[in-house]
Design brief:
The complex is a heterodimer of chains A (328) and B (121). Chain A is of the alpha+beta class and 328 residues long. Chain A contains ten helices and five strands, in the order H-H-H-H-E-E-H-H-E-E-H-E-H-H-H. Chain A folds into two domains: 182 residues, Four Helix Bundle (Hemerythrin (Met), subunit A), CATH 1.20.120; 94 residues, no CATH class. In chain A, a hairpin with a 4-residue loop joins strand 1 and strand 2. The relative contact order of chain A is 0.16. The chains are: A alpha+beta (328), B mainly alpha (121). Chains A and B meet through helix 1, helix 3 and helix 10 of A and helix 1, helix 3 and helix 4 of B.
């Protein structure tokens, strides 16, 4: 009886016949990392395409990124468009540089240098995550507040110079008799959502009292700015269509404009942030492996190279998110 | 292993890393400056229904992506077959996504703005 049960396919000795030859000339691990990166890149492209699609639908009323993301740490009330995100971009690019330096040191089998550069990379990743948390905090908290209209649009308020003015600056909450329902008093108890003491009536009263205030709609004019109504139109708009006060952002509404804007912000930057977080965790695991000498014994620092590929990919995605969310 | 040649190679690799870092930084600074200044002639002049400013942003982003993938992810040292497997897959599928988003997005916007009397009541 024939000893072998493997059928001959006539591809022996060819590149696609298997065997020792590696057609893509890369190790199994690196190849799989590349395949993962390719599919993950398509996932992010899908998200960004969905963002682009939704933005096209609301092309004439989409929020202007400069006005939404204009905070910088320790600069309160200073209009600093883009600086903060630019800083975040630099942090990530720089952590990419230290990562590639760690890979390079790995090629030279210099353990100490790998340790240093990987530690710097992890530090960069953690700083980036912290920055993103701060960015989310500002986004969720909001700055000026807005009024929602019955058609689900947003109207914002500007002073005589056309500068944004916060709801709290021209209206004060009227005292209300309000008893909070506590857990000890109820059989069926659900904690209340955040309570906004400022009611629509307060905003209306404040707006009427300040003759110079006007309403700014979501509509973008030919000059690329949001449309500002006249005083009469403003009063009419607020009094006939206003249904509620919005401060900050959550998953169903936000003070910046289309609810989808907030949804995409949370989803895309959140999904990217989740990638950074998992990147940091994997980096930490590999970092400790480097410390205890696992790769030194193995004779190759390829694991550092593989986590490096992932880390650069995270940076790559941020470059695109930065462009399409903050610049375009 | 010949020690001298590998040493020279590594010195070159380090130089390349810093070079790419400088290029990426300059491109990012240019993007941010343009994004803050928004020069009028770039905002108001269109090329194939996209403003020149947005074209600049998109092109610079792709240039940055090229440097990150080629230099940092060492794509330039991989086999041509691996390069093609990764890059062409992305290029074809992403072009498809972009085509859909442009066609359908424009269509939906048209229906949204022209198909109804108003959405802002």
């Amino acid at each position: 009886m024939e000893a072998t049960t493997v059928a001959k396919t006539g591809t022996e000795g060819q590149a696609w016949g298997g065997g020792e030859e590696k057609p893509l000339k890369a190790s199994y691990g690196k190849l799989m990392m590349w395949f993962f990166i390719t599919s993950d890149a398509l996932t992010f492209s899908g998200f960004l395409a969905a963002y682009g699609f939704s933005r096209f639908k609301f092309i004439e009323e989409w929020p202007i990124a400069d006005e939404v993301f204009n905070h910088f740490p320790f600069l309160h009330g200073v209009d600093a468009p883009m600086y903060y995100v630019a800083l975040m971009t630099f942090i990530l690019i720089f952590s990419s540089v230290t990562m590639v330096l760690a890979v390079d040191a790995g090629h030279e089998m210099k353990k100490d240098k790998v340790v240093t550069y990987m530690a710097l990379t992890i530090l960069g990743g953690v700083i980036f995550l912290g920055s993103q948390a701060w960015e989310w905090k500002n986004f969720i908290q909001g700055e000026y507040g807005a009024v929602e209209t019955r058609s689900g649009k947003i109207i914002q308020f500007v002073d005589a110079d056309g500068d944004r003015i916060a709801l709290g600056e021209f209206s004060t909450a009227s005292p209300k008799d309000r008893t909070q329902h506590l857990e000890k008093n109820g059989i069926w108890y659900k904690a209340e959502d955040s309570f906004n003491p400022l009611a629509l009536e307060d905003v209306k009263r404040g707006f009427e009292a300040n003759e110079t205030l006007r309403v700014r709609t979501m509509q973008i004019t030919d000059e690329g700015e949001k449309e500002i109504l006249t005083r009469e139109e403003s009063l009419l708009k607020l009094n006939t269509t206003g249904v509620g006060v919005i401060e900050g952002a959550n998953l169903s509404q936000n003070e910046y404009g289309a609810p989808l804007f907030g949804g995409f912000f949370f989803f895309i930057t959140g999904f990217h942030g989740f990638h950074v977080l998992s990147g940091v965790l994997i980096l930490i695991i590999v970092f400790f492996n480097v410390l205890v000498g696992t790769y030194e014994k193995r004779g190759s620092y390829e694991m550092v190279e593989k986590v490096g590929l992932y880390w650069h990919f995270v940076d790559l995605v941020w470059v695109f998110v930065f462009t399409f969310f903050y610049l375009v | 292993m010949a020690h001298d040649t590998t040493h020279a190679k590594h010195a070159g690799a380090k130089k390349r890393i810093w070079q790419v870092f400088i290029i990426l930084s300059i491109l990012t600074i240019v993007e941010v400056v343009l994004g803050i200044l928004k020069p009028d002639f770039l905002v108001h002049n269109d090329l194939v229904s996209l403003s020149l400013l947005n074209w600049i942003f998109i092109v610079l982003t792709i240039v940055k992506a090229y440097y990150i993938v080629w230099a940092f992810m060492h794509m330039e040292h991989e086999a041509a077959s691996l390069r093609r497997v990764v890059v062409w897959t992305g290029v074809f599928l992403i072009s498809y996504l972009i085509a859909i988003l442009l066609i359908e997005g424009t269509y939906v916007q048209e229906i949204y703005t022209e198909g109804y009397i108003t959405w802002d009541f």
